Fold each of these.
Amino acid sequence: MRLIALLAFAIALLFPVRVSAEDGYDLWLRYRALEAGQQDRIRPHATALVSEESDPTIDRIAAELGTALGAMLGAPPPARRDAPAGAIVFGTPKSPRIAALGLPLGKLGREGYLIRSVAIDGKPVTVIAGNTSIGALYGAFRFIRLIQLGEPIDRLDIADRPRLDLRLLNHWDNLDRHVERGYAGQSIWDWQKLPGFADPRYTDYARANASIGINGTVLNNVNSNADILTEPFLKKVAKLADIFRPYGIRVYLSARFSAPIEIGGLKTADPLDPEVAAWWKAKADEIYRHVPDFGGFLVKANSEGQPGPQDYGRSHAEGANMLAAAVRPHGGVVMWRAFVYANENPDDRAKQAYSEFQPLDGTFADNVIVQVKNGPIDFQPREPFHPLFGAMPKTPLMMEFQITKEYLGFATHLVYLGGLWEEVLRADTHRPRAGTTVADVLDTPVRAGAPTGIAGVANIGNDRNWSGSQFDQANWYAFGRLAWNPDESGHAIAADWSRMTWGDDPALTSAITGMMLRSHQAVVDYMTPLGLNHLMATGHHYGPGPWVDDLPRRDWNPTYFHDADAAGIGFDRTRTGSNAVAQYAAPVARRFGSLATVGDDYLLWFHHVPWDHRMASGRTLWDELVVRYDRGVAEVAAMQQAWAALAPKIDARRHREVSDFLAIQREEAKWWRDACIAYFGSIAKRPLPAGHAAPPHDLQYYKAIRHPYAPGN
Ligand code: BDP
């Protein structure tokens, strides 16, 4: 045995290869040795880690700073009780040293932080302080990021706090580990082995989220299973909550409205039935015994077949308020989703959430927050902002973005969503006045103490790289950064992410951010240009299906959404059509409602436009549509080229994976382009503009393509 061990040691000395190539597991917390000059600049400001407190979060801060600085500088600074010159002193005013500094922490709230270069006993140190240790944790991650990004750290004076209270991931994870709309493997929650075994990944998940300020997670799918609320599962949930707590992350659950019947043995789930209310109250009490800081419930009710209060003739507010009363004594919230459209309702689907919810403004309990998708249909490649933003001034509204790429080609398509989200957050609602953006609506409490928030449907699974692709990590990252500060720029976030994920070479950063920033318009162009939407194939939403017209609900069919006929294409949402524009503030309605001012991005979202309509480009609409499809494909080719040129600067395994994915994306972009041109061409019956090739196959060929095993369905 000893001989073998010696031999192995000798071999390891001779061949100091890395045990495993980089695979993306480290995310943006990829702490790599800094170059020597940079190390020399940082070391004098990282001579020791000093804290006078002890709690689980403080321990995590010490561990993270130790790991990060150890890896970036070669050796971790020692933990010390005194504060020598160059020390990093972290904690809260519970530390006498921090209290003595009299720092202006007053305005930073529970989660804010301050990072300052100060003197303690005449010695220069860096202090990272919050009112709570969670604030200090966020500060520590910010400090680490400064070093990762090569910023000077000798004269720091940074104060920051999150703009939104609830910054949540929504996992659409089922109890059997299938992830609805998940493209990164199975659910990371291994329910079968919990609570006995806790995968170390849960800790890395919490670290990653804390590093970008995410402070809550809904563990299970909105299409929920009542079993999650039973005792065996609550024990598993409690285990996860224990792991997440030191990282400032609270656990929430999707509640199935009919749970009192399914697991409670009641005959009804009518929210006005006292027995039902009592059942939920007892259930909430039980949950809080397992998870004392449980965040609350997320509810999808009366939407796409889910049970809800309307099954009993009650309103959404009556349903939400009953649940809110159950969690209120414990400080919990109810996030009630506005993503509803009813089978019986023949009205334009884009109008239904507003029609249903706007009249309920002011009738929700004060611990209810209505969760609204970014656009009025459903996470399409591009949608105008949802008209509910700004239209319910007495009701807290939170944003729901989709981080996972259900309608964006799944994990293999490189699509950076920071720009799309920025577009939505900066949209001017004109409510109550010009200049009130969606971000303003989100971060202005409707009354003192009312909750604010944002949620992202997670793209996380048990793939080694977490998100299904290296670049999809950027969307998780960008979501967190925008949740912390909805006014940040998608561009700046992309650059930070690129530097921390791929390496800090300016040429690399500019090439990668260039790819990321053009990627959103590219997918819009090769899938749903000019305001088209919902052209995806049935069920799984993978690949094109603009011809589909045989689904039981009219508003599940792509033909409903594009409304193409011999005369033209597009959904008339103006006064002559469904008049959905009227749900926006008057100036916005005027802009969207007029062909002259709507612009190319939302043209066919709001208007049914003749094929020969003259576009701003001077082309006819038909020609423009074809040009856009080709432009989208060309953009993917350009991304491929840009990426290929980066090979010498990137580790082989990750470079290869992205190259392969880009090749898939290009094939599929072309598939989208060909299928859509073949189909729309069969309706428009116009020749292709000069220089644009006919699809290589006839329409039948594209219609016959089937993908019964596409993931995430
Ligand atoms: C749609 C998804 C479906 C979700 C639904 C929702 O296709 O899987 O359950 O949204 O948000 O985008 O409830």
Amino acid sequence: MSDRLFIFDTTLRDGEQVPGCQLNTVEKIQVAKQLEALGVDVIEAGFPISSPGDFNSVIEISKAVTWPTICALTRAVEKDIDVAAEALRFAKHKRIHTGIGTSDSHIRYKFNSNREEIIERAVAAVKYARRFVDDVEFYAEDAGRTENEYLARVVEAVIKAGATVVNIPDTTGYCLPYEYGAKIKYLMEHVDNIDKAILSTHCHNDLGMATANTIAGVLNGARQVEVTINGIGERAGNTSLEEVAMIIKCHNDIDIETNINTQKIYPASRMVSSLMNMPVQPNKAIVGRNAFAHSSGIHQDGVLKNVQTYEIIDPKDVGIDDNAIVLTARSGRAALKHRLHVLGVEMEQDKLDKVYEDFLKLADKKKDITDDDILVLAGADRADNHHIKLDYLQVTSGVGVRSVASLGLNISGEHFEAAASGNGPVDAAIKALKKIIDRQMTLKEFTIQAISKGSDDMGKVHMQVEYDGQMYYGFGANTDIIAASVEAYIDCINKFKR
Ligand code: KIV
Ligand code: ZN
């Protein structure tokens, strides 16, 4: 029988740490349910002591999800562990994930400590966590740069103290695949009680090697992998779930199985990208827009003769179905509801009616409605509680003339209007906006997501605005790209801490 590889998803913890990707509790529950349908074994739901929002999300996800283990992160600190145990109280299967830095630089600069004391703190944290739960995972932060001999001592000590899983993070994404694989092999061979626990990989992608390192870890004995949907995560991200799942599925030479229902990969990817306002790069393996697009003549010729000439994955295996019903202005509520269900979004009748109304308006403007469009419409009510809303926008622009914009805002029920000229339509519109909202704010980043299907497509705008020393992230989506830009700016302003 094949070995089982456990999939530990940390989209809602390590993934959600990305600035601008924060989700509210309702959105996190949506993602958690999608992860459950996908078949992940463990959902890392948050870091409860870090904020009341994280604490609450762990509670609500524990109630909403049935069979995956719910995991909460802590430092090797008793108070953290108390709070995590409290947040996990409704989970059917629960795990506390505690740990401490083990590399010399962490020991010296972060903890001003020494190796022996770190082992003592690690052991104490695991023992303390075992008072609350039977399933305790220990992470040796920066294990990638921790000397193997010392790491083996830490691993042995925490297993003896009761750790059921030991996580070996390459926190900085520094390791080469052969090095990371050798590290796991070393631990498998030199830790006396290694048969009493599972070794886990946790690789970051700073040098683009997260997936390769993860697979090297698995080939050398790790039986849990820590991953995120679309590989999101701080800096260059974490190992991507879809890449690992498809490598294991495609490579019959790797005699290992996961519980992942790969046909749910694409809907999960779209949902996370949409809720977190985090575009997926077009050439991203497995889930990028171009992942299955053959454009060169030689490739197209080969694919037409036999698809296996250039395609190692059937797009249907990851949930991309080109024959899926196309939604148009003539589609009914049932078709929309079905598509939302396929994308993992369930909603009450009231909300469905509202989304359907918006869907018809959009379908009047553009021919085919994509999954992305539907997810944007489904999340549009995120702006409902904004105190500043765009009432109207009018822009004139052209070649050889200065652009002029006039706009109206509704601020907590009061109406304001302004007009301005600028170097282009977006510049003019934002200048008009700034005449009404008179604050020292600076646009730092402005990304327009590529239009994928046609000139009538919905444009998506991501913005970062600096205000009062803080960075705020905003998102706007509209068939009119100027309106999407203004909406993204207003989304930022609504988040200002007043
Ligand atoms: O990258 C890392 O080391 C982590 C740990 C907290 C598990 O995310
Ligand atoms: Zn990490």
